[in-house]
Amino acid sequence: MSETERRFDLYGDGFKRDPHPTFTAMRREAPIWQQAGLDGSTPIWFVSRYADVDAMLRDKRFVRDAALAHDPADLPPEPELLRRIGQHMLNHDGVDHQRLRGLVSQAFTPRRVAEMRPRVRAIADGLLEPFEGRGSMELIGDFAFPLPTTVILEMIGVPGEDRDRVRVWGNALLAAPRDADEGRVLEAQMVEFADYVAALVEERRAHPQDDLLSGLVAAEEAGDRLSLDELLSTLVLLITAGHETTVNLIANAVLALSRHPHVRDALAAEPAAMPGAVEELLRFDGPVERALNRWAAEDVEWGGQTIRRGDPLILILGSANRDPDRFEAADVLDPARSPNPHLAFGKGAHYCMGAPLARLEGEIALNALLARLPGLRVAVPEEDLRYRFLPGFRALEALPVAWDVAG
Fold it and tell me: CB-based burial of residue 137 (10 Å sphere; 0-12 exposed, 13-18 middle, 19+ buried)?
């Protein structure tokens, strides 16, 4: 079989609905396998076993910055848009990664995040209160999206009234265009996003406030810690990553609990068990299906395969988290599972900086939902549910839900 042919379908509707049969086959038959990526031609190594994914996430020979894995002459010119919004910590390694991460990491420490608990709870309660007596809602638009988006926009210092625009721009940033026309639309939206963030930066230059945005502007103005492109890129990343993964964590968790009503009811009766349940829900059907692409910075022999310098790799977190060689009864949703060394937030230098905030938001959101909306369940046949075309994510388009309302 040619390396550009696809042995495993990783993009179709059936796969998006339930990827785990495909992941099981990959782990069993071809745990490190090279086949065509989304474009149908570029060969990519797909890695599906927990042991390999865990080790590769921490191995410095697999880098996020493509420039470290290619000769300069082999790299295409950097597009203007990527220069404006792609110079963030996720696209760098080593010293540059540490510098960019250090500029914002203090805002996401466990202590700082714990101090946000009352505010997150107030936002959750405020969103749910108008719906309690109605008996139904569209969970993503009415709750799962506005909760983390409100939190991250307040942290950064972005006007809350721009929340819906942020949703459109974030989707454009993460989406994989399926044709040239869609690509042009998405690019125009990303340019609009970059222009919007640039205008925010200029406003904070003139009127600093007590927020993360003003702190980053001050670092950029210092001249030796942050360039303007890095500033814009970092803000775009924080705005998008600060809500997108938690939206999907909440929605996927509610779907899983609807499928497992005994687990849902047990958690409703014991809210203190929710932190452990969140860890299991992250493992069971986490929001991030695949880690961001890596490239081999040198030739590497691994698992009987020769991975050449410059080869791209995709490490499949969703498969690793269901690997029976690492997790007993891996396909069972067990909120009491301990230990639970899932890889939902990655591992190593690029471990998700926002993990403490996502955990807090997930815990508060799910406890609020189960306390206020008894018998919470999906309100449509599951075959009617659709997933967004985001190859790296487990992201539903919408999730209609219902609950019991006292007569």
Answer: buried
